[in-house]
Amino acid sequence: MPRFFWIIMALIGGGLILLVTSGDRGTTLGIESDAFARTLYLGIWGVVLGASIFATRVPLGDVARNLAIWLFIILLLVAGYQYRYELQDVASRITAGIVPGSPLSVGADGQTVRLDMGMDGHFAARAEVDGATILFLVDTGATTTVLNARDAAAVGIDVDGLSYSIPVSTANGMARAARASVDEIRLAGIVRRGMTVLVAAPGSLDRSLLGMNFLGSLSGFDVRGDVMILRD
């Protein structure tokens, strides 16, 4: 068999003999036995790897370059895993800047949500209502959450079958609305089920309003400059 094989076997055998004969002393050749065993293990693998590289006769420059590339990839993966939550936060902030009203969950529990002020000076909230994505205008002056006719139809409400008999005040003046209900409103990690909403008559409301029946169900919310924080 090749001489290299017997060299490796001699190293393994010699190392094992030293570990066994060290007994209960806890050290081998003045080194802690655990550290000696790890060093022996890594050394053997280093010898095997080095011999394999030389056996392929690949230029050392190419070997060094490939090792550097793999080392960089490994370090990048480790760094990505260690900073995964921070990277998620950065990605959410970028999304919030690109897509108006995108909520940003603050904290691992998802029960604190951040909304950034839009270019128009208002706070918007992109929420899921019965599976449909609705862009709400956050309106602390609205007693009830109001859906415009277009968003109500997207949610699955029969807009044509409603009776618009409830007067409501909008930015365009007084309008008529109908009472309805939705199974779920989900804003990031904040979820409310079985909520009553109003549906504005077709053509009377441009944007749906996230009102106080949702905001008032939270433990608190406040505005800090151009940021609104919602706490479940």
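Above is the first protein from milestone M3; the second protein from the same milestone is given next.
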Amino acid sequence: MRLLNPLLALLVLYCLGAGRAGAADLVQTIAAIKPAIVGVGSYQAMRSPAVSFVGTGFVVGDGLTVVTNAHVVAAASGEERKDSKDNLRVLVARGANVEAREAALLVMDRLHDLALLRLSGAPEPALRVGDSDSAREGQMLAFTGFPLTAILGFHPVTHRAMISAITVVATPAPNARSLDAKAIVQLQRSAYPVFQLDGTAYPGFSGSPLYDPESGVVLGVINKVLNATKESAISAPSGITYAIPAKFVQQLMTGR
């Protein structure tokens, strides 16, 4: 039997040990993260069920501020339906029960697909928003939220993901004819970096925090997946997910 080179053997043992340590860190981090993960939805007294669950959010700051996606708030508030405006609700776990708490929209950033909500009542456990400019391609992260929303029950689910690329997106022009000089300048101004991830996010994960597995510090917000059709997001997911860097959350929180 051929023995491994001593240095190679030590390297293998180190990598195995690092892998176990990383997994242990994530186990502890998930336990700390979950109390700050909330659902975002709406309430209509005459609807059955009265509370509709749309996406994910997470608590930051003083425990009464919730971060989510702008498109989640638009769906929850009935913005897309001219005949109805729903009341926003934030769903908070209370042991085996779920409490639907009133929430108000503080500010919305449609360009970066972010929104801040204000919770009523007592503060909840909060996550820390970190420096997303420190994130690097190849870095392993995790995100926790509610895939498929209420279908799986009110149980936060965690997926791991690597930053595959840090790329730039811009709001596209409606058509080629509108691409004049002014439109091109506007496109350049609206371009911003996003994290492309190799983890799979399903509908309902929108608004989930993307965080460091060891520290739990939030580095981004899940906002969309790459899919050919809406239906394929469930039946044939691409495994390519995008997240908004946390620096835009910080800008929203500080009003910059």
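Note on the second protein: Residues 120 and 190 are 34 Å apart (CA to CA).
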